[in-house]
Amino acid sequence: MTEYKDIEAAAGRLTGVAVRTPLLSNRQLDDLAGGRVLVKPECLQVTGSFKIRGAYNFLSQLDPDEARRGVVAFSSGNHAQGVAAAGTMLGIQAAIVMPEDAPRAKLENTRRLGGEVITYDRYTGDRETIARELAAQRGAVVVPSYDHEFIIAGQGTVGLEIAQQCAELGMEPEQVLVCCGGGGLIAGTAMALKANYANVAVHPVEPEDFDDTARSLRSGKREHIDSSARSICDALQAHSPGEMTFAINEALLGRGLIVSDAEVRAAMRFAFANLKLVVEPGGAVALAAVLSGKIDTQGKSTVVVISGGNVDGEMFAEIQRAASG
Amino acid sequence: MTEYKDIEAAAGRLTGVAVRTPLLSNRQLDDLAGGRVLVKPECLQVTGSFKIRGAYNFLSQLDPDEARRGVVAFSSGNHAQGVAAAGTMLGIQAAIVMPEDAPRAKLENTRRLGGEVITYDRYTGDRETIARELAAQRGAVVVPSYDHEFIIAGQGTVGLEIAQQCAELGMEPEQVLVCCGGGGLIAGTAMALKANYANVAVHPVEPEDFDDTARSLRSGKREHIDSSARSICDALQAHSPGEMTFAINEALLGRGLIVSDAEVRAAMRFAFANLKLVVEPGGAVALAAVLSGKIDTQGKSTVVVISGGNVDGEMFAEIQRAASG
Description:
The structure is a homodimer of 325-residue chains. With 325 residues, chain A is α/β, with parallel strands linked by helices.
């Protein structure tokens, strides 16, 4: 089980590897929310998302023998880029199983970062099986995308930075909103935040029909999503909460918030026009939850994690052009 | 004449008003440049550009009688938004004379920030005359967009932050590239940088056909641009260097760099795809100079100022769609 000291150790390993992304404020956002809203833009992170944090923390702890045999990962794109980049930095060969309909930018960047890309059909193939077979053939280690203590500890450095940056600003965060796919980012982030601010509420935000964590938090057991579910948020399509992540999240999180594709598009437009940030759909859900009033922000201090910005130019342009979602 | 202590005083006034924008690094940019490149993204600033710095520093030093009579400014858009926002913060009425073909986002935001917008034809009207007549009618103070010691000192806080942030990173900037219209930003920035790093080279970057500062630095007198000149960079269309700004710039700057509209578009696409930043054309010229090899960056440490991100969604989408400039 991940502990707070593991997150601190991960922060040490990530020094000079991951960027300490800033904590931004924006007047329009504060005005709309009727309170103070701080934005943690992991779209500005190396490889364009937070995923390098967990991937590097995992790969840097392989023993020399494991490192020589290489790693295999399966990912819709952001974890793929994180693993590819971490592999290149550490001299470890990385093969990544990715859906063939992943954003072109994510496929191209994974290759450019030095990853070997193997594609499959998202709706018929089972990426986990493909990855495990490949790993068995090669004797390679599988890099889980969320359900591992090294991954959770690495992603948790986002929460550690938020805690430090709030302290530097002399303020206490009352609520923190984090996107949730498999739950690795929010598990580590909640652990780091709760260790510093016992009263902070940490809420997962998910796309409509991919609300497995929200439902699991209510029922107390790991719920699954329907295989017919579709969302613009390609980065948040895990089928159920992780075993390790849910054990942490069940203990630490507040209620789950749900946003629609239209609300995500509106948040991406807001980020373009006001924050001047390029945000991918899955990266925009926490911001969307604030903008669409899914949580009370009046007179409160709220932190919103923007998890990534890896979106194709064409899709981004189409969303900018559309007057409504 | 602006002095270094005026920039330090401006930084004090701007605390809690302007954002201390981060100094970002990006692996792709470092790889392309063959050296270390740090980006100062003033697109993340309040009102989406650095202009709030000078505007607030100016307005906050008006005496109560002047403040009561209000201010008038003329601007293609970023100074307009800075003056409107500073006016609203300080309770000072602000009228802004803007070209009717200014980006829609700039016109709308200036109104939304509380400014009274008066439009004119950029190619036939004289905005300075219109503004001065209006100011005379109202007894209002004109807020110059660059040629004033308070404006230069305010914009110089960009350079002060760069100097502080480089010190925090334990590195010395060898060259700093800054966009140049009337020259206020670069004059203040160069003054702040040179006070901290005597050997730093500060280069102005201008769009093709708007290279009045580059030519003036060569000839030693204030050159003018041709009235038929056109550029995608709406924010950098001053007709000649300012008197005060040129006196500073002549003493402090290295040679001027020139970029084409196509190079600016390519830099905007690079910023979207790799930096995840929304950058307006005028804000992208310094980045364009690095990407198009207008200056040697091999093995050097270079800081690039991105001055603003106020660009219409339609134009941004069109630039993202175009495969080449």
